[in-house]
């Protein structure tokens, strides 16, 4: 992350909320590419702004930084398809679904991609700026992740029908 492009106000807010979520200043500084001392100073500055009323705590801010923490911890937000339309969910939430529900999501997303005549273009890097295939790229990523979740679930259950996913 290039902190030269990020305002101190954003860094202050991020350092504050991430420290409130349990990250150490060493962890925060590594992600923001600043010193731990600066991360602690920025968090303290934001806390003093909260106390003075210059800024207020908001649920939207807290949720945003919780999402940033989830992504930093390796969880990812996925876009997928079901029989009811497009959805967004965290990988960790999808991992709690049973195999039948995961397979339904996997098949619906895969079938959508298979029917898309632009699928061949997904093998090329996205163009700079606007990517008309962004949704397709997200679905392709989700199909891969959901396939991995299904394989893990079947392996833990000792099932042998995991070849359905491996072949696609």
Structure, explained:
The protein is mainly alpha-helical. It contains eight helices and two strands. Strands 1-2 form a two-stranded antiparallel sheet. Strand 1 and strand 2 form a beta hairpin. The protein is elongated. The model has no long low-confidence stretch (mean pLDDT 88).
How does the SSE layout of this entry go?
Layout: H1 8-20, H2 25-32, H3 36-52, H4 59-72, E1 77-82, E2 85-90, H5 91-94, H6 99-115, H7 134-157, H8 163-166
Antiparallel strand pairs: 1-2
Helix pairs in contact: 1-2, 1-3, 1-4, 2-3, 6-7
What is the helix content?
Answer: 55-70%
Record field, number of beta strands:
2
What would the principal axes of the Cα set say about the shape?
elongated
For the largest beta-sheet, the strand count, sense and barrel status come to: 2 strands, antiparallel
- Which strand order do you get reading across the main beta sheet? 1-2
What order do the helices and strands follow? HHHHEEHHHH
Report the sheet-strand fraction: 5-15%
Count every helix, treating DSSP H or I runs of 4 or more residues as helices: 8
- Structural classification: mainly alpha
Alpha carbon gyration radius? 20 Å
Mean residue pLDDT: 88
The parts where pLDDT drops under 50 for at least 5 residues are: none
């Amino acid at each position: 992350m290039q902190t030269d492009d990020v305002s101190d106000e954003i860094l202050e807010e991020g350092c504050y909320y991430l420290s409130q979520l349990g990250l150490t200043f060493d962890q925060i500084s590594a992600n923001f590419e600043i010193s731990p001392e600066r991360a602690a100073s920025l968090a303290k500055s934001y806390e003093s702004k909260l106390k003075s009323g210059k800024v207020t705590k908001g649920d939207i801010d807290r949720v945003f930084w919780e999402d940033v923490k989830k992504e930093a911890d390796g969880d990812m937000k996925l876009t997928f398809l079901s029989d009811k339309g497009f959805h967004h969910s965290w990988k960790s939430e999808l991992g709690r679904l049973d195999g039948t529900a995961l397979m339904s999501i996997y098949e619906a997303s895969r079938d959508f991609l298979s029917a898309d005549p632009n699928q061949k273009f997904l093998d090329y890097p996205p163009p700079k700026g606007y990517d008309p295939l962004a949704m397709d790229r997200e679905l392709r990523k989700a199909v891969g992740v959901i396939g991995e979740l299904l394989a893990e679930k079947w392996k833990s259950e000792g099932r042998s029908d995991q070849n359905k996913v491996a072949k696609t």
